[in-house]
Amino acid sequence: MKIVFMGTPEFAVPSLDILIKNHYNVVGVVTVPDKPAGRGQQIQESAVKKFAVANGIKVLQPLKLKDPVFISELKNLNADLQIVVAFRMLPEEVWNMPRLGTYNLHGSLLPKYRGAAPINWAIINGERETGVTTFKLKHEIDTGNILFSQKVSITDSMSVGELHDDLMKVGASLILKTVKAIESGHADLQAQNDLEAVHAPKIFKETCKIDWNKTVDEIHNLIRGLSPYPGAFIEFKDSLGNVMSLKIITAIKDKSEHSDTNGHLLTDNKTYANVVCKDGYICIKELQLQGKKKMTTAEFLRGYKFPEGTVFA
Q: Are 227 and 160 in contact (CB under 8 A)?
C-alpha cells in the first residue's frame, strides 16, 4: 500500500515517524515551500520536510495545490492512501485522488471544535477533556465521516503547549491504528452529528487581549489557551505615557471577593504582580514585555517598575 503523507509543523512529525517505523511504504511527502523567517530572514524548512529528507522520502512543496505540475507529480506517485496531519485545506482533485481516500488527523473530538485552532479553544472554553480524531476528507472542512477518536484529559493548569504535545503523541498512535484498519479493510466510518458541532476559528490578535471584566476562570483559561504562543496580552501606559504591550505566559488564579477596580495592578514592584478581575485576582508568574525575552515576575520587576496606580486596559 503506497502512502502519501501531507503535513507541515512539528505536530505532524510523530505521525510520519510512526508510519516509517512500522514499515509502511511512504512514497512521498507534501509540505509547504521553504520560506524566510526570524530576524535574519534565514530560509526555513518545515519540520516535516526536515524529517522526510533525513529519511530519504521524496518531498513535494507546491505553492498552489491546484498547480498542474504538482497534480501531475502527485498522480505519478500512484498512492493508494493519503494521510493529512496539520496541513492546508485540500482541493477535491487532491483529496479524491487515491483509491482508498484521504484521511485527516484533527486535534479535537469531532464534531466539537471544527476549524483552525481546536487545541486553543478547548482550553479557552474550559473543557476538561478533548482528544484527536481521524476522519475521511470530503468537501466541507472537518465534517467527514469519523474512523477513530481518542480522548485526552485537560488539567486545570495545563497550557496549550502542553496539551499540544500530549495530542501529538496520542495522534501518532491513532494514525497508525487508522492506517492498519484501512489496510485490513475494517475502516468502519461513522457520520458526524452536525447538531453537536462547535467551531474553533483562527486565533486573531483581538482574541488574545485580556478583558479584566471577565471572571478569574475565563481569564485564566484564556492565558493557558494561548501559552506559550501567541500569548494573551495586556496594554498599559508607562511613566512616559507610551502604550506598552505585555504578554502573560503563566499565571495562577485567586478567587476572592473584593471591591477594587477591575484591571488594577497590585504589586510591591519586587516579587509579585496581581491583577484585579471580576471575582478575584490573576497572579502573574511569567510574562514578556514586547521585544523582550520571557521572564518570571520577580526577574521582570528587577528591571522594570510599574507606575503607582497602574490599571491595565
A: yes
What is the C-alpha to C-alpha distance for residues 51 and 26, in angstroms, rounded to an integer?
A: 13
CB atoms closer than 10 angstroms to residue 251: 24
How much is the pTM?
Answer: 0.94
Q: Print pLDDT tens along the chain (313 aa).
A: 999 999 999 999 999 999 999 999 999 999 999 998 777 778 899 999 999 999 999 999 999 999 999 999 999 999 999 999 999 999 999 999 999 999 999 999 999 999 999 999 999 999 999 999 999 999 999 999 999 999 999 999 999 999 999 999 999 999 999 999 999 999 999 999 999 999 999 999 999 999 999 999 999 999 999 999 999 999 887 778 888 899 999 999 999 999 999 999 999 999 999 999 999 999 999 999 988 999 999 999 999 988 888 888 7
Q: H helices within the chain, ranges in order?
A: 13-21, 47-54, 68-76, 92-95, 118-124, 160-184, 205-208, 216-225, 297-303
> Which residue segments constitute the domains of the chain, with CATH numbers given?
2-196 (3.40.50.170), 205-303 (3.10.25.10)
Distance between CA atoms of 65 and 93, rounded to whole angstroms? 9
Q: How far is CA 154 from CA 163, 192, 284, in A?
A: 7, 23, 21
| Residue 307 grid coordinates | 507606575
